[in-house]
Amino acid sequence: MTLTLSMDPAEYVKALVGALATGQALIEPAQVKYTVSPGVGILRPAVQCPSPNQDDRPAGTEPELIIIHSISLPPCEFGGPHVEQLFTNCLDWGEHPYFREIEGLQVSAHLFVRRDGAIVQFAPFGRRAWHAGTSCFRGRPNCNDYSIGVELEGDDDTPYDDAQYDVLVGILAALMETYKGLTTRRIAGHCDVAPGRKTDPGPAFDWLRLYDGLARRGEDGGEK
Ligand SMILES: [Zn+2]
C-alpha cells in the first residue's frame, strides 16, 4: 500500500497509524510531495500529535533557521513510543533508569522523523517549539524564537536510515518554499547552535548527503 496526498487526511492518518502498529513499510519518501499549510503551518503528510510544550513566537517573527536534532529514548533504542510520550509530557519517568535523569523535562520539537521515515508533528511551524535551549546562531541568541526544530530518531554514532534522508530533503524543500527566510545556508545542527552543550545530530549525520539531496531536487525542477 502506498500513501498518497489524494487520500482524505483522516484516511491517511488512519492508514499510517495502522501501518506503524503492524510495522508495515508503506512510505516511499522520495515520491511524496510535502506541503505546508499557509498560516499556522501544518505539514502534510504528518501525523499530528500536539505538544503542550509550545507557545507563541515573538510578535512578527517568522522561521529563519532549521535546526537538525537527533533523539532516541532510551538512548540508542529505536522504535518505541517514548519520544512522543516525552514531547507530550506523558513519559513514565520510572519506566527506565535513564528517564530519571531527564525527569521533569518539558521539551518538544516541530517534527520527529522515525527511522522508517514516518513523520510526527508536535507543534505548527507558526508556533515556538522548545527544542534548542540556550543557543545562538551567527550571533543571534534564543534560536527557539525563530527556528524550526526537526528531530531524527537516532543517536550520534548510528548511521541514519535512507528513508530519513529522503524525508528530510522533502520536508526541508517544502519549508524553504513556504518560508522565504529559510535557505540552505540556514540549516544548522543542534551541535552548531549549542556547542559544548549538545552534540546532536552527531558525526553519523551526513550533511553532504542532505545538501546533495536538496541540490538534486532543485535541478530536477522540484520544490527548491
Ligand atoms: Zn537536540
Task: Please explain how this structure is put together.
The protein has a single domain (9-219), classed as Lysozyme-like. The chain is an alpha/beta fold and 224 residues long. α4 packs across α6 (207-219). β1 (35-36) and β2 form a beta hairpin. The chain has six helices and twelve strands. It is globular, with a radius of gyration of 16 Å. It starts with 8 loop residues before the first helix and ends in a 5-residue tail after the last helix. Zinc ion (ZN) binds at residues 69, 190, 198, 200.
Question: Can you tell me the overall shape?
Answer: globular
Uncertain spans: none
Percent of residues in helices? 25-40%
Number of domains: 1
Task: State the CATH topology.
Answer: Lysozyme-like
- Overall mean pLDDT stands at 90
> What oligomeric state best describes the polypeptide chains here?
single chain
Q: What is the rounded distance between the termini? A: 28 Å
> For the largest beta sheet, what order do the strands appear in spatially?
3-7-6-11-5-12
Record field, number of beta strands: 12
Q: CATH homologous superfamily? A: Peptidoglycan recognition protein-like
* CATH first level: Alpha Beta
Largest sheet: 6 strands, mixed
As a percent range, the share of strand residues is 15-25%
What is the CA-based Rg, rounded?
16 Å
Q: How many distinct helices?
A: 6
Specify the CATH architecture: 3-Layer(aba) Sandwich
Q: SSE order, as H and E?
A: HEEEEEHHEEEEEEHEHH
Given the helix and strand composition, which structural class is it? Answer: alpha/beta
- Could you say which small molecules are bound to this protein? zinc ion
